[in-house]
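RNA polymerase sigma factor sigM structure dump, as promised
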Amino acid sequence: MTALEFSYSLNKMSKSLKPFALKLTKDMEEANDLLQETILKAFTNRDKFADGTNLKAWLYTIMKNTFITNYQRMVRRNTFIDTTDNLHYINSTENVTENLAYTSFALKDINEAIVNLDDAYKTPFMMHFRGFKYHEIADKLNIPIGTVKNRIHIARKELKGKLRNYAVK
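structure tokens r here:
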């Protein structure tokens, strides 16, 4: 089945999937989101669909599994409330105390990386960080604006390389 034929079949089947999504979620907006996520998953995994098998059943299975996964994710995030007389919140995100050690290490490493930058890159970078515009930095340092942009770019690149342990994955 070609991508175009598959897309056409998905479009036809989406009308029959919507009531099932509504039955699962009991909310029209969430049903639309679930339907959209199901169609997206089906289209991205169309190579896993075997020709001659029941497309409708395959889509219903994707939708049901997606709903279950989303529901489990939501349950893990929810706050549980103790119904005893004290009414304490368990797992409440209102009063979260974070361990500041990680932040302390990160800040130390960032400052060290900036200090170790070559002055030609550090000065324009720190001026830009403090809020100076490119043209103001260029005027203050008596260098062309293109050089300012290039030096800030190089400083960022070097800092990114030195601080890659803190990159968000």
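The chain has a mean pLDDT of 84.
lmk if u need the other ones
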